[in-house]
Amino acid sequence: MNITFKLFASLTDYLPPEARTSNIMALDVPTDASISTIIAPFGMPEKLVHLVLVNGVYVEPADRLTRTLQEGDVLAIWPPIAGG
Length: 84
Prior knowledge:
Elements: E1 2-7, E2 24-28, H1 35-39, E3 51-54, E4 57-58, E5 74-78
Parallel strand pairs: 1-5
Antiparallel strand pairs: 1-2, 3-4, 3-5
């Protein structure tokens, strides 16, 4: 199944080089893959996977181990952001 995967801010460094300028890539994932399974190959430290959205809806950390996606979903991830 195909989904859109987006990483933001410093997380774009974990994307393949050809996807870093747009921060978006298409992924073909198994239908039973959880969010955690999908992001594991990218090697992001867990503490940097802060804000996770599926189609713009926040996914709680506890749900990321079991939540699966549907064809065409958009998985977007942001690191913790500090500001002043």
